[in-house]
Amino acid sequence: MDQVRYEAPETLDAAIALLSDDTTASTIFAGGTDVMVQLHSDLIEPEVIVNVKNIPDLIGIEEIGGVYTIGAATPVAELQEHKEFCEAWPGVIEGAELIGSVQVKGRSTIVGNLCNASPAADSVPPSIAAGATVNIVGPNGKRKVAVEDIVTGPRQTSLKKGEIIVSTTFPARPPHSGDAYLRLTPRTEMDIAIVGAAVNLTLDDLGICTTARVSLGAVAPKFLLVEECANALIGTRVDKNALYALGKAASDAADPISDKRGTRDYRVKTIAVMTLRAAERAVKRAREN
Amino acid sequence: MATILEESGFNPDADLKVVGTNPVKHDGLDKVLGRAKFGADVYLPGMLYGKIVRSPHAHAKIKSIDISEAKKLPGVKAVITGADFPEIPQGSGWGDMSRTTIAREKVLFDGHPVAAIAAISEQVAKRACKLIKVEYDVLPHVIEVEDAIAKDAPILHDYMRTKGDEDAPDVPTNICEKMVSKIGDIDSGFASADFIVENDFDSKPMHQGYIEPQGCIADYSQDGLVELWTCTQAPFVYRDRLSAILKIDAAKINVQQSELGGGFGGKTGFYAEPLAIVLSKKASAPVKMTLTRTEVFRGTGPVSGTKSRIKMGCKRNGKIVAAEAELYFQTGPYTGSMYFNAPNAMFTRYDLPNIYIEAYEVVSNRPKVNSFRAPCVPQIVFGVEGLIDDMAKKVGMDPIDFRLKNAATEGHTTIYGDTWGPVGFVETLEAAKTTEHYRTPIKSGEGRGISCGFWFNRGGETASTMTLAPDGTVTISTGTADVAGSRISIAMMAAEELGIDVDKVRVKMSDTNSLGFNRVTAGSRTTFSVGMVVVDNARKCIGELCRRAANEWGVAEEEVKFENGEVKPASSNVGDFAPMSIGDITSKTTMTDGAIVSSSSMNVTGAGPGFGVHIVDVKVDEGTGRVDVLRWTVIQDAGKAIHPLQVEGQLQGAAIQGMGWALNEEYIYTQEGQLDNPGFLDYRMPVASDVPMVDCKIVEVPNPLHPFGLRGVGEVPVVPTMAAVGNAITAAIGIRPTSLPMSPPKLLDLIEKRDTLYP
After folding, report:
1. Which of A24, B335, B524, B585 has the CB geometry, 3.0–4.6 Å to B176, for a possible disulfide?
2. Selecting from 3.40.50.300, 3.30.365.10, 3.30.360.20, 3.90.480.20, what CATH number does the domain B28-36+459-604 have?
3. Tell me, what's the ipTM?
4. Does B743 touch chain A (CB under 8 A)?
């Protein structure tokens, strides 16, 4: 690592100005839990690091009428301690909780997990399944984008030069809703998902699934939001047949690579199992509330 | 030269006050407070930082190395290549060692050092590394054993012929050595068998996974003296090897070992040290070098990956009558894998009339292998203990009873020619049977496996001094590195012999200038061998204390005795003298004959073999092939546990290392022969939450040749691990995994295969 300039602006405008400068290679630093590792292993060589943790707009959890907006630099540990959010989105928390150890979660953020743009990121599939959107500010103003439209490929996002994600918005939950995220790793923790599956669904008063969103991680260059998986559940009681169809749809949608973390064949097989198990967990939660 | 205490003084009924207790380790506080100095913790005035340029190719001819641009970079003080090292012919032991340190004619693995730089900062050194231009002529490479022994395999060394194979044709080969071991007549053995079991097995290289990457600082003075501070298991071995490959007199090299952040065999051979010395000589300044984790994985040696075929036969009554094996061991680019341990240990613990083993050592384009606890044995025992379980099932016997039926006992003559004294294999098996773990029935859906292991345990050259301070406290200098907490056990043995409190004894890890040659800490030799010379020193000091007291009292030496830390008259007839403590005597050395010191040097023999039994429960997720290890118990004969908690630590650590080797740890290579997972994220060692509490039961069948009866304990406990996990998985899923690691994808395939075979 050569000499790097460190900036900690206190306003969004100042941060955008720094990040928009075409003459310097910059990187946003929120939790820093990816950036520091990448810096030390020479994977990135920025000239300026812009710490955004001092910008008030980026910190905090706000709830209005069941809609949650979470500041982009809010650490995962704060989300974990927010009882109401944890009850509303247990699947999102299941993903977020996997972002590192206890110490790492004191700094890491779900937006950082998203912008790092690894197709194996654990908090992203449940956010996509939740129907979450991110609020972006940049040199050309504000825009809202669905989470599934941010990552375009490994280490690539649709964010433009100078743009910052300010917050993530999770929609209000109808009754009888539940979500869940499950990932497969050989070890119990401190590992990268071989496959990950998030299911978010809502049942009617009779227990029939009315809406569903299923998102898969680590089985394609980007996160998948699989309509066929949702269709396997909608209109059913999420019974054995529906779960089997869901698993098959997940395997069919998967187009993974073989790499050091798992073979294509193994990923295709296990995404079915993990999606099915995530759905079982989500429907149990939906039936309980 | 003594090799053992003539009278060990071992007394099974001794009333021991210190040995067998669990005092706080003297080096513990510094470690938990972060004050202990490890390899990277020394800073010298004016020191430079060294970095290594490594080959990106698995196999290539070096056409040229251009260092001119790097030398021009401001802040760069020295650049070296293989040309800066003394020429030693390739194919010789020292030649291979020198070439492992830095490549000459060819690079032979991804990560092979080709040049090194010393600069005023790490940043400058790293930048300079990028300015070194190496022109390679890339050659076809070979990674796996089966590819390396194939007919048209790329050859690493044109000069290589198979040592120990007279029938081999006179053409280049990748097989360095062949070793045949036998007992009895294998054909008639199998002819008399009622049941025969046979299987192919394979394993991947396993990295020791020490948490401290190699770190050292070398200072080459203007008058040709070398000071080297480094984390090592073998300060004296490093000194002598450095002397040989750098052609510097051994007496001019002083190696000071640091605290060690884990070694497990991986720090028995050096990596950056010779480079740091040559850089320091060239730059006329101290040079510090610390490997990154990536370098540790790419550049340092794991233990051998293997491929084997093993066959065993037994009678209907459970008596094993024949055992045969064909074994292949990876050694990296050069010979020196310690593969011979496997034929010597794989079946040893069972009394088998007929054995035939062929073992081969094979070079390939991987880093040179290094030692790891019981080198080359656990990965082969994985197969042996699997087949033993299969035989027990065929015969219809309890797996422990089956092993008891075949267990070797005192008087057994091994395949390597030793005849055993008292050994504790039967006692260990019996103890396993009585554990709560073994007696608790396994739950449905789970699997239980048991497995056994043996390790020789070693002695070897050991030298130590003991110094008594004027206040009666004791300093021990030892040159056999403390890699796992041996200092406290050594202090305890001295305290026991001297009849004083253990906190009155301090053990110091000495530099090589201050003591005679000590062999590497390996082979589970340290507490045993150092214990031998320390007791010898204590007895010599006691003799001198008695002599001084007798002089003071004006009586003959035979008329005084040493008891409970005091010299006293041997009987009331001698006279009415108040007993004198050690301090009473040492405080008066100004008036007597000067300080009381003792030195002892032995080539220790008499290490007692060690045995262990592991019981493991697992649950396999049949949807994913993932294994959860639910329960683990280790039963092992320690002879005598000097510090029982330290012994338990050895047993638990070994179980966990074996668990990683069994389940997930493996080296993954790209098509181009580059290591694809050089880090802890993807080299999947177990994390804390993967590991159940490992229960320990220490059996004590004393080794009477040692004053306290101890046996080495560091290596036995890793030997049965993978087999125990493998047997547990077999019990859980009903089909035997034969390939290590037993990772989720492999197990899922096996479960699918089972469902096709037995729908």
Report:
1. B335
2. 3.30.365.10
3. 0.94
4. yes
